[in-house]
């Protein structure tokens, strides 16, 4: 399961409203090959279910992971930072054994 912080929830709701996405949209979180540490995070908004999708809900936000990504992201917390060091979603992944300096890729 992936959880979200209150700041991430606020940002997700802001994006959903700004893009006029209806209640059929959810947050799709995935892991892809790439990045300086080997695997990178991907976050999108989607409204189409794919075979093998795993759905969770936290703080009223529907979150979707494909089965492969679930293996890498189980227990991960999605946060949002709007500080001076940069804005954007951050993944706090307990499964990552190493992350790159920018925080956008990891390895297990």
TrEMBL record:
All residue ranges annotated as the Core domain in the record: 2-104
Organism of this sequence: Sphingobacterium olei
InterPro entries tied to this protein: ATAP, ATAP_core_dom, FeS_cluster_insertion_CS, HesB-like_dom_sf, IscA_plant_cyanobact
Name assigned to this protein: Iron-sulfur cluster assembly accessory protein
GO biological process terms held by the UniProt record: iron-sulfur cluster assembly
GO terms, molecular function: 2 iron, 2 sulfur cluster binding; protein-macromolecule adaptor activity
Pfam family name, one: Fe-S_biosyn
Protein origin, superkingdom: Bacteria
């Amino acid at each position: 399961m992936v959880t979200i912080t209150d700041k991430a929830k606020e940002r997700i709701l802001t994006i959903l409203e700004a893009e006029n996405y209806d209640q059929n949209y959810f947050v799709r979180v995935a892991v892809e090959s790439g990045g300086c540490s080997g695997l990178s995070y991907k976050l999108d908004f989607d409204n189409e279910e794919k075979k093998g999708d795993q759905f969770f809900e936290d703080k009223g936000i529907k979150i979707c992971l494909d089965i492969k990504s679930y293996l890498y992201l189980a227990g991960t917390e999605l946060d949002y930072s709007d500080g001076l060091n940069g804005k954007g979603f951050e993944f706090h992944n307990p499964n990552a054994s190493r992350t790159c300096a920018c925080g956008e890729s990891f390895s297990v």
